[in-house]
């Protein structure tokens, strides 16, 4: 768990640095129809943080196994209008949510990490797997789209 926490701390410093050297055009350009801009990818990472923060908390006390529900990622990005928001607003949201996630992760017990989650379609995982998946998802988007 400590490796995940350290990686998340690294991205909390690195991602704002990345955006602070970009021009507005670089942040808002969509490279193809039906593709998100860098601002929208960051907005998507905000949505992911929001959804996963709730999951990481609920899994610890809710009915076991916790059923992980999905959400319409495209609708979330579009309806929240990330493309038109100032980058500082999106960065503040993303960093605030991830700082809160760090607090939750720092308080997880080994027992909590082994709590079962039902991902549907016969896929059973643990909270620890879900936390690792959150970081993997974040890093995938950072490396591919930001």
From TrEMBL:
This is DinB superfamily protein. Residues 19-142 form the DinB-like domain. InterPro entries: DinB-like, DinB/YfiT-like. Gene3D superfamilies: dinb family like domain. It holds the Pfam family DinB_2. It comes from Lysinibacillus fusiformis. It comes from the Bacteria.
């Amino acid at each position: 768990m400590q490796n995940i926490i350290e990686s998340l701390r690294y991205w909390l410093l690195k991602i704002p640095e990345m955006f602070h050297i970009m021009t507005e055009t670089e942040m808002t350009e969509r490279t193809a129809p039906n593709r998100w801009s860098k601002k929208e990818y960051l907005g998507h990472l905000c949505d992911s943080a929001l959804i996963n923060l709730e999951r990481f908390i609920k899994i610890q006390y809710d009915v076991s196994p916790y059923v992980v529900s999905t959400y319409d990622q495209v609708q979330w990005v579009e309806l929240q209008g990330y493309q038109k928001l100032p980058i500082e607003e999106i960065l503040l949201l993303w960093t605030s949510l991830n700082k809160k996630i760090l607090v939750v992760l720092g308080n997880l017990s080994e027992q909590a990490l082994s709590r079962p989650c039902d991902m549907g379609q016969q896929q059973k995982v643990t909270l620890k797997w879900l936390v690792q998946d959150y970081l993997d998802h974040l890093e995938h988007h950072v490396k591919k789209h930001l």
